[in-house]
Amino acid sequence: MLGGIEAGGTKFICGVGTGPDDLRTVQFPTTTPQATVEQAVAFFRAQEPVDAVGIGSFGPVELKTGHIAATPKPGWRDFDFAGTVRRALGVRVVFNTDVNAAALGEERWGAAQGLRDFMYVTVGTGIGAGAVANGELVYGLKHPEMGHVRIPHDLARDPFPGCCPFHGDCLEGLASGPAMQARWGCPSSELSPELPAWDLEAHYLALAVNNWACVLSPQRIVMGGGVMRMPGLIERIRTQWASILNGYMPASEIVPPLLGGRSGVLGALVLAERADS
Amino acid sequence: MLGGIEAGGTKFICGVGTGPDDLRTVQFPTTTPQATVEQAVAFFRAQEPVDAVGIGSFGPVELKTGHIAATPKPGWRDFDFAGTVRRALGVRVVFNTDVNAAALGEERWGAAQGLRDFMYVTVGTGIGAGAVANGELVYGLKHPEMGHVRIPHDLARDPFPGCCPFHGDCLEGLASGPAMQARWGCPSSELSPELPAWDLEAHYLALAVNNWACVLSPQRIVMGGGVMRMPGLIERIRTQWASILNGYMPASEIVPPLLGGRSGVLGALVLAERADS
Predict the structure, then answer these.
(1) Hey, is the C-beta of B249 within 8 angstroms of any chain A C-beta?
(2) Which of B60, B117, B249 is closest, CB to CB, to A145?
(3) Are A85 and A153 within one domain?
(4) Does an H or E element contain A193, and which?
(5) Residues of A in contact with B148 (CB under 8 A)
(6) Residues A235-255: pLDDT tens digits?
(7) Residue A89 within a domain
């Protein structure tokens, strides 16, 4: 049996199983590293023994060592995430980013089946993406940080200065869930779909999609995360991107995840399989 | 013997040989497709017979068919480039983008030897890049169009509206050679390095480097092309990118091509080798 952890900035989802049909999950808020990992470990101990655990973690992370890196999230910087889980459960642990895990989940069972060039994007507490090019996850020097691309910011239309502690008005600073909350004074889920807030959000995400697609030219872009749950947002992004592209190159398909909120934890099971190799 | 063509928007470079040590080249301006390809064919006929020809072409291109696609360049749209060369010389032709060819040249003999994740960027008549991720060229749906990313454009500092016929103030519209010429009234090569024009240019290119690196996280970015010949420009891009990154993630190395103006034509020889496979 395999275990998976989707470690998000807001919540953890832990699961045991072999795929979507037999997956048993639990979820709880992300608090301190020690308390949150203890809850995960307790869940796995209460299930039948797992042979390996995959972790898809919020970032930035150090993939080689399984640590969290320079996150602004209090208490998590330099936390030995993979090592802590490995020692507590006594099993092999495969560590990757949350978005790489979700990309693997959607590739195996979801909206990216059979594709060799695609992205999985999350728009929520942060903005990030996992990319597969020529059938392989893209890592490079470390791992992509797609939420930190710079996009045009029309200060006359949107005087909000952005909320990224590193970059101010990078994409994440302008279009993440916390950015929407800081700009509009309430969580994005409470903003009615007809408000101009969503045109602005679609505009920023279309600019980001444009930049990602100019670099990777993916066949499909799967867009998930809390903010993407707003009805109609994906259609608005498609429309605004078509206007930005102006026919210059073929547009990648933009689709929601087929696995809904389970892309990450299911992808963590795919990671756990790799413990053998 | 192998032949290579680097087909640029401004000039063609044709070469015959096996590598940098024995390469014989000729170059001439890019005029109409027919006249320019005739000159290339005449060069190859005057050499010892070639077994295959590699072409690295300006874009956008249709890689599968070897055609030029929707270029604004007069006369070249829908031109059957690979087929015309194949029929004229009676040899196998391998067709790719100019920047993918240059990336292969720098990988084999230049600044990207031994790397599995890097980019070759040209900043000249247009702006484009070839990317290698996990040791393989990135294609995706078609091929990257990295010159058409959107970046912040501070209209107060730079009221020039951009000159991309498709997108106005995309990267290429703001920072290509023609953009510099239109904004400042003379070719970039005549702008003295101490002018503020070069701070602005470094700023735009640093924003682009940031966006590319957030997506691909390359180990190294090789930056060539006519505009990049300005002394000190690479150092200014490094400095401005460090300021933009603000320590958030490791910076990719930014270096000039080791093969100078021959990256593309040498890479076209690497393409020609692939005619056998």
Answers:
(1) yes
(2) B249
(3) no
(4) none
(5) 210, 214, 248-249
(6) 999 999 999 999 999 999 999
(7) yes
Residue B45, domain member (yes or no): yes
Band (pLDDT 50/70/90 cuts) for residue A10 is confident
Q: What are phi and psi of B213, to 5 degrees?
A: -70, -30
- Quick check: is B238 in a domain? yes
ipTM: 0.95
B235 and B140 share one domain: yes
- Number of domains forming the structure of chain A: 2
- The reply to whether the predicted model has a pTM over 0.80 is yes
Contact list, B70 vs chain A (CB under 8 Å) = 247-248
Nearest-10 crossing angle of helices B233-245, B196-216? 60
User: Does B148 sit within 8 Å of A248, measured CB to CB?
Assistant: yes
A184 and A148 in a common domain: yes
What counts of helices (H) and strands (E) characterise chain B?
8, 12
Q: Is residue B265 included in any domain, yes or no?
A: yes
**What are the backbone angles phi and psi of residue B33, rounded to the nearest 5°?**
-60, -45
Q: What is the CATH number of the domain that holds B135?
A: 3.30.420.40
| Domain housing B51 | 2-98+261-276
Q: B150–A207: do the CB atoms touch at under 8 Å?
A: yes
* Nearest C-alpha neighbor of A144 from the set A179, A177, A100: A100
